[in-house]
Predict the structure.
Amino acid sequence: MTALQVPHHIAIVMDGNGRWANKRFLPRIAGHKQGVESLKRCAKACDARGVRVLTVFAFSSENWKRPTEEVSGLMDLFAFALSREVEQLQADGVQLRFIGERQGLSARVSRSIEQAEVATAGNTRLILNVCFNYGGRWDIVQAAQKLAERGLSVTEAHLSQAMALAHVPDPDLVIRTGDEQRISNFLLWQSAYSEFFFTDALWPDFDEAALDLAIHSFSQRERRFGLTSGQLDSQAASAQAQ
Ligand code: IPE
Ligand code: IPE
Ligand code: MG
């Protein structure tokens, strides 16, 4: 039996909070609250399995178009959850990073982001990137703007270094919950060679067993990066011979 390959970096589109709440005749924000609990469970489970980077999609550039009440509820929940959870994240060795456009966020949300980032900056067990007011297109544009400002030529290497996730390797596995099979402007650049796993589990229901299914599926894939299976076999054979 071959050993389980655990992804170094997992990225997740945490979708289905609203439907989870609807099914229970609860307001949508109740689903988002439960989504925070699911994220805490997932981060712990990832750490326990040896995943070193977890990147989650919490609020997209497009989510501003939702009803005002839901948007303000999400902003409040975000700021509240951050201030409440920072101590525990600190104890668990989690380094929090916020990925997204900071302009346009309220002073309260910006402050809670800065405080959480400063408090957890020295942690090394798990990097948790929270994509908030994030869009993959925004990321590519802001990276291109940086190159222009710095007078750098437009190359893949320069763009990669200017992207918002330059501090971590590209995701090995991208999971989307909530029974949708689309990318919704998530990691457009970074997911070029990621494996994808779609599940109908709604995000608040995504538990350890669901995570294990995704990791197991990942572990069975052959990642070829454009090569042939034969080339991969001979690479593995020569690596073993050394
Ligand atoms: C994902 O859940 C969380 C955010 C987009 C903030 P949704 O709110 O999209 O849940 P559904 O898709 O309506 O069920
Ligand atoms: C993607 O979910 C964004 C987040 C999970 C934060 P959406 O629910 O916004 O995506 P669409 O609108 O169904 O594509
Ligand atoms: Mg959705």
Notes: The mean pLDDT is 97.
